[in-house]
Write a structure and sequence with these properties.
- The protein is α/β, with parallel strands linked by helices and 401 residues long.
- It has 2 domains: 190 residues, 3-Layer(aba) Sandwich (Rossmann fold), CATH 3.40.50; 196 residues, RecF/RecN/SMC, N-terminal domain (Glutathione S-transferase Yfyf (Class Pi), Chain A, domain 2, Up-down Bundle), CATH 1.20.1050.90.
- Helix content is 45%, strand content 24%.
- A 6-stranded antiparallel β-sheet has the order 2-1-4-5-6-7, covered by helices on one side. It has a 6-stranded mixed β-sheet with strand order 8-12-13-3-14-15, with helices on both faces. Strands 9-10-11 form a 3-stranded antiparallel β-sheet.
- The radius of gyration is 23 Å and the shape is globular.
- The chain starts with a strand and ends with a strand.
- The model has no long low-confidence stretch (mean pLDDT 91).
Length: 401
Amino acid sequence: MHLVELELEEFRSYRRLQLHLDPAGLRLVGDNASGKSSLLEAIAMLATTRSVRTSSERELIHWRSGEDLSLPPFSRIRGVVTRGDRTIEIEIAIQIEPGRTSHVKKRIRINGRPVRVLDAVGSLNAVLFSPEDIELISGSPAGRRRYLDSTISQLDRSYLRSLARFSRILEQRNSLLKSLAGSGITAGSRQAGEQLDFWDAELVAHGSAVIARRVLIVKRLGRLAAERFELLSMTADLDVRYESSVSLTPAQVAELVTMDRLQPVVARNFTTALTAARSDELRRGATLVGPHRDDVTFQLAGLDVSMHGSRGQQRLVVVALKLAISALMQEIADESPVLMLDDVLSELDPRHQASLLEATAAAGLQVIVTATEPSLLRRPVLERIPASRVASGSILPLDSL
C-alpha cells in the first residue's frame, strides 16, 4: 500500500498543496511549527477520518479560509492510494455551517462517491509515531482505548460498527440508570428488571464483540511488540495485556483464539458481571462494566512500565508497539501500512535511531519521516527516500540534505 498523491486545501497552515509521493516515502525537514506535523495529521486523517491532534475539527480550517470566494470557512484533504492493483481516492471536506461558527459539517467521498465514516475507515492504513505517543504508556486508560479502537477500526469495519452501536447503547443505558437512581428504584425490584434487562442484553451483544476483538488483537500485538522490544533493548521481558472489567482467565485467552469461540464466553461473563454490579450501578447512575472501563497495560519484568519504567524504557516500549502495529496491519490486511515518524529520531539515542530505521527498512514500508535537524535524516538507510523542506505552508524538493 502506498500513498501516491496528497492534496490539501485550507488545512491548518496549508492554503493549497499538491504533493506526489515516492513509493519509498518522504524525508521532510523544517523548523518547529513549519507544518511537518500538520502534513502527517492530514494523512492520518485519511486513514481514520479523525484528527489525531484535536477533537475540534474547527481548528483544522485555515483562519482565512473562504475569504477570497466569500464562502463559509472550509478545509479539504484528498489522497490517492494504491492497494495492489487498485487505486482509491479518498476525500474529506470540512465546512463551517453558515450562521453556526462553532459547528462543522464533514463530508467523505471514496472514488467520488459519498460514504459514511464506517465505510471510509481503513481505505488507507497508516501508523503515526510522534514524541507525544509516550502518553500511550504514561497517560490515561481512555487514551489507550481510543488508540486501540482507532487501530483495530482500520483493520476491521465490523469492529467499528460494534463499537458505534455499543457507544449508543451505553449512552441510553446510563441515562436510564440515572433516571432510576433518581427515583430510588432498587436492584431487586420488578421495575429495575423490566427496564434494564433489554438494555443489558443489547449492551452485552455489542460490548462482547468489542471486548473479544480487542483481546485477540492485543494478544497478537503483545507477541509482535515483545519480539521488537527484544531487538531494541536486548531484553525479552515486555508483556502487553488487555485488562478487562469482564473477567477472563489466562487459559480462556490462550485457548479461545477465534471470535466465534471467544465472544460467547465474554458475553456469558459480561452478563454475570452486570448482574453482580446492578446495585452499585443504580446507586451511582452509571454503567460500571464493559469495554469503556477496560485498559491495556505494559509490563517489564512484571512491573508496570507506566509507574516503574524510566522515560527511556517507556519510549522504547512505544517504539516496539508502533513497529508491532505496522507488522500486524501487514499480517491482517496483507498490505504494508504507511509509517509516519514525526520528529521521533531526536527523542532516541544513536543506537536506537539506527535500530528503528533498520526495522522500517526491513519491513519495506513507505516511510514519511520528519526532523528539524537535517543531520538526523542523513542516514544510509534513508538515502533511497526523496527529501524536501517545508516552510510557510509550502514543500520544496531538495537535491540533498
